[in-house]
Design goal:
- With 253 residues, this protein is an alpha/beta fold.
- The chain has a domain of 132 residues: Alpha-Beta Complex (Spore Coat Polysaccharide Biosynthesis Protein SpsA, Chain A).
- It has 8 helices and 15 strands.
Length: 253
């Protein structure tokens, strides 16, 4: 199953680091957020990833082109130019690195990778939220409703867009209103029919259109979810890693 990871935005609320690197490459513990997400999906035997690149994409490209050197101990023979890796990581994944434009909005990025989607159902993630969500349950939930789109609804107070839900169906999608319980957690499951709804602009417009047509379903998730949106978020999640209390680390190192 294809998983689309949206990696092209600027992450302007985290300028302390995103002036230098793309937001998905911010490190939590000893791994970029992007690798935390890939490992979560790998845990559920999902191995095919389409990365929508844009802002500072060369950093993400370099990371995967030199994956072993970034994640292994090594010895380099300078005379011969040979490299020997130790504790080489195992990443059983196929990574598509696709340039979707530096200033493209989310809907436009999805349209640019449409031809890479090979199955009717595929997954999408904003690449800045971490969770112990069961991806297989999310997929089963999506299939059980037969609708075009499923988003993961989580509870977190603050500055995020919210959704109204009635009997699992999303009745409205609002970008950053206040005093609502559920927010969009960014773990999506879609049918390819969503491409008929995508407006080549920011994604909330598409979600709102799907909601108005009764085609957007909420998977209400009550487990751990958090978003790396600010430096304080990074510090909090890094402390969880350092204390071996990171609920999203469902994989075995």
């Amino acid at each position: 199953m294809n998983t689309v990871l949206l990696c092209g935005g600027r992450g302007v609320r985290f300028s302390e680091e995103t002036n230098l690197i793309p937001k998905p490459m911010i490190q939590i513990g000893n791994l970029p957020i992007l690798m935390h997400l890939i490992k979560i999906y790998n845990h559920y035997n999902i191995k095919d990833f389409i990365l929508c690149l844009g802002y500072k994409q060369e950093i993400i490209r370099e990371y995967f082109l030199n994956f072993n050197s970034h994640n292994s101990d090594m010895v380099i023979n300078l005379k011969e130019g040979n490299v020997e890796y130790f504790k080489k990581p195992v990443l059983d994944s196929n990574i598509h690195l696709i340039d979707t434009g530096e200033n493209t909005l989310t809907g436009g990025r999805l349209l640019k990778i449409k031809d890479y989607i090979k199955e009717d159902i595929f997954l999408v993630n904003y690449s800045d939220g971490l969770s112990n969500i069961n991806i297989n349950e999310l997929i089963r939930f999506h299939k059980s409703h037969g609708k075009i789109a499923t988003l993961t609804a989580v509870k977190k107070q603050g500055k995020f867009g919210t959704i109204q839900v009635k009997n699992d169906t999303v009745t409205s999608f609002k970008e950053k209103p206040v005093d609502d319980d559920y927010i969009n957690g960014g773990f999506f499951c879609f049918s390819k029919k969503i491409f008929d709804y995508i407006i080549d602009g920011d994604f909330p417009e598409t979600l709102d259109l799907l909601a108005k047509n009764g085609q957007l379903i909420a998977y209400k998730f009550k487990g751990f979810w958090d978003c790396v949106d600010t430096l304080n978020d990074k510090i909090r999640l890094e402390k969880m890693c350092n204390d071996n209390q990171a609920p999203w680390k469902v994989w075995n190192d």
